[in-house]
Amino acid sequence: MKSCNPHFFLKWFGMAVIGLLGFMVPGICAALPENDRIKVAIFNFNIQDIESSGYGSNITNQLINALGAYPSLAIMDRKELEHFLFLNEFHQNDNPQNIFTIGNRLGLEIIVAGKVGKQNSNIVIECRVFKIDRQTEVLNKNLKLPGDAKLSMELRELAGQINQAILESKSVTPDTSKPQETQIKEVCRLTAKPGRSKVTLFWNAPAAFVKAGYKIYRATSAAGPFVKIGQTDEFQYQDTEVEAKTPYFYKIKAYDSQGAETDFSALVQAGSVPTPEPPIILKAESHVKGVTVFWTPNPMVRPDEGKTISFFIYRSLKEDDSYLQVGQVEVKEQNTGGATRPALATFSFMNQSLDDGTEYFFKITAANQQGFESDFSKCIRQKTVEPVEKLAAEGDRIREIRLKWQPGEAPLAKGYVLYRSQKENEGFQNIQRIVEIKTAGFTDRTGLEDDRIYYYYLTVYEDQDRETGPSMIVSARTKGPPPPVAGLEAQSGLVKKVQLQWPLVAQDEISGYKIYRAQQEAGPYQLITVLKERHIDHYLDAGHFLQTLEDDTVYFYRVTTFNPVEVESRTYAAAFARTKNRPQKPEGVQAVGRQVQKATLSWQANKETIAHYVVFRKETGSESFSSIGRTGGETNYVDAGLKNGVEYQYRIKAEDKDGLVSDASDPVTVRTKPKPQAPQGLSVRYENKEAIVSWQANAETDIVSYVIYERFLILVNKTASVSGTEYRFNGLSSGSNKTVFLTAVDQDGLESEYSAAITITGP
């Protein structure tokens, strides 16, 4: 047996007190006298984060077991240590002052303390060894382990380093520079387990001894004589030549390949005792970091074996190797009307904190009220749940990474836990719990960025607190932004429009294009449209109904592609174009005034090709110009039908073939010819029964005639037209009256208003 279990010592020592045969039972685990052994306490390793929960007690227990195998060390019982600390309100940590205080109170020579934490998938262990009497630290060791797989092996190596440091602190380290003596003083720690018709011996290898084999000696009294009964290179030996009720005394020594031998071990006493029949293992179940073993008591009951009160569970990494006790199950009883029997016909025990994907071998014994154990049951093997295998990551996708793996054969596992980081060896976080063990893939779409490498590993979980170690770390890169648009062109010279053209970006990831516009090359650019079709290669920018493009204005454009998740490409240099300019305003506008009811306009022809000139007019007293007509490109216009003697203003605008209209020309003012003034100074005289009406000549120089009108009741009749300034009325009736008035007519036929009326009376 490779190590001596300290729990074995407590169990068998207590049982020896009440042993029916009075035999000296196993429990003398040390070959050195108790007073010569170094007194050591091992504190619980403190956990540094929630991810390391469970590792503190696991590491502490494994170190206790490993250090207990060294004969020079006396390990303080863990329950006694914790009871003392509780009563004195002390705490287990690696603070030196606290450790020296506790060590002095307990009379210890050495205290081992430390911390354990998780960094991603790595287990980080800090171990410190303190020598109490000197108040010094004799060892500070840091370990960083990639998961649980090598934890047990590394802790055994750490125990060897701790033992070596302790020995060196006592100045008892052998001087290896001197020739080795024939007799090696270091001895084996021997224990014995009594059984029915046999005794099983267990021991450890001397710490600094390269063994070749072991010699076993037996006697029927402590004084001897001792006879060599066997020789082996294993760590246990079974003596089957024993008789009932006969005490036997055993000792062993180790020898190496050079013939050097150790001293004899201390004597142990054992003999044949009545033990229960070994239990019958039914099955074993694989768990995450654990194995559950099921068994039932042996139906064969011997009269002398006594009542089975407990079962002990043993474990090994090899079927034929030594087995380490890993658990104990008490047999509960229930009242059945005076009789008692086990509460359950089937028992189980779950051995936890095991390595992933590792095969373990289990055996079970039954123990009676006297503390005598049965032989081992038959062995059962079971492997813990394997970590995830063949994890692969597929990248080059838009904000997603696809993961695939080979589903494990773990019926009791619940599923998987996916971890992700942006760094290869740190910063992993739980991003998804996959609740189906048969699942073979997962697509990660949670918060991924473009063109970024992500690292993943996967664990198998059985409950919230139990996961396998990580799978291999895999990585993949997300797809970057979509490809940009190259070769954008913009066409100038269009009327309030710009035509854009670009080569198609023929890739499936393209969902369309976004077009931006600015009035300066440096921006700011505003999104003017989204084309949700990747096969479009052109766009006509005409503004929109609320804001059209301006004339003779430079516009800058950028075009990007976008993918299904709205990620846009980068842009190349902007393309630009200028809209068409409006014609210049007409120059040299002239108007001919004092025309009869019309105005004649003329102007200079524009340098541009003009389709129309548009004439605008405003009458005196009006607030705005109105369009009155257009030419077909001619540079003159006659505005007829005007009022006499009224002032008008005119402006001209030029319009090209595309409908672009210039600004208005400078205004020109013109007045039409007014009508003559009404004749003035009308008078009448009578001669020879004639009435002669005369008046003053008009001031206008172009008067050609005067028109005489008579009023008959409500009617006005034209009587005559004369060129002079008088007119004779004859043939008047006696006592008759005539109402006469007249107008002046100029050479253009413009007739004045009526003059004042004059009355003519007959003789």
Protein model, in words:
There is one protein chain. The protein is rod-shaped. Helix content is 9%, strand content 41%. Strands 1, 2, 3, 4, 5 and 6 form a 6-stranded mixed β-sheet that branches. Strands 27, 28, 30, 31 and 32 form a 5-stranded antiparallel β-sheet that branches. The chain has a 4-stranded antiparallel β-sheet with strand order 11-10-13-15, with no helix packed on it. The longest helix is centred in the first third of the chain and has 19 residues, at 151-169.
Provide keyphrases for this structure.
Immunoglobulin-like; 5 helices; rod-shaped; disordered N terminus; 763 residues; 7 domains; mainly beta; Rossmann fold; 9% helix; 41% strand; single chain
Indicate the CATH topology of the largest domain: Rossmann fold
CATH class of the largest domain: Alpha Beta
Rounded radius of gyration (Å): 60 Å
| Helix/strand class | mainly beta
Low-confidence stretches: 1-31, 172-182, 337-343
Q: How many helical stretches?
A: 5
Largest sheet: 6 strands, mixed
Helicity, as a percent range: under 10%
Proportion of residues in extended strands: 35-45%
For the terminal residues, how far apart are their CA atoms? 177 Å
* Count of extended strands: 53
Give the overall shape. rod-shaped
CATH architecture of the largest domain: 3-Layer(aba) Sandwich
* Multimeric status of the protein: single chain
Task: Give the number of domains.
Answer: 7
What value does the average pLDDT take? 86
CATH superfamily (homologous) name of the largest domain: TolB, N-terminal domain
